Amino acid sequence: MKVLILGAGAVGLTLAAKLSSVCDVHAVCRQRHADRIKSEGFKMTGIWGEATCKFSCSEDAPEDDYDYILISSKSTATESICKEFADIIKGREVVSMQNGIGNEEIIAKYTDKVIGGTIITGFEWTGDAQIHVSVETGPMNLGRFPSGLDESVLRLVELIKSAGIRVSGTENIMSSVWSKVLYNSALNPLGAVMGVSYGELANSHAWSIIENIVKEAFMVTEAETVVFPWKTADEYLAFLHDFQLPNTADHHSSMYQDISSGRKTEIDFLNGAIVSRAKELGIDAPYNTFISEQIRFMEALQAEKQKHE
User: The domain 2-170: what is its CATH number?
Assistant: First the structure.
């Protein structure tokens, strides 16, 4: 089986490393990572095991008859990646392994075979082509977008499972996608604004903000008839507080890392997307609006600072 991974950063390169033992894989990544992988191999540590392995990678994508194409980039790059590799993507199975709402809709403009995916695992850079897998709060989920579970999805589930990654198929992938959006929207921006790990957000004052962010998001999902494992916002908040937060207490959000490095964040696909959909539905979302504007302000400050360095 042949797999292509586009926009391979921390998530994509680690998936490529694991999949390289069970199929032909090529990762499109930054040249410095490709050079390191070719010379010394990709180094993985943490809860997914310790290994050093080599696999095909470069800044371009070889023309081939790929069985699956995974996009693992930041959501901000989805459109540009689809445009750049439109000829390879067209008519093929393309999987979004990304954060946020809206990626699958973008991909669907370039192929009629879209698979949604979620992965709630912590991947941290320790050097070029070196990743530490730090935390995991559940299995990867895959499903046909916008809904359904077919043979092609199930074959991918079995392939990933054979690589030693916990994964399951779902008939309602948008429930999984929105579940991750709830988690990311609740923790990422506030952790980024305050510069703290997730565990610090259990503070009662921070938690009050999180409660309102989540309750606004639930109003949107109820209007869009998204089906969750939790019946109410309070049920989800209890799960977030008692299970997800403790399991990722030491983790710093990727949004914090993006702002620190002067990169554009995924806020428009998380809290920003909640705000956009709320407006369309006539729902007020002041907490999500405020935190989105805070992140955009921090992005602008960092961009201005870099101009003068």
Answer: 3.40.50.720
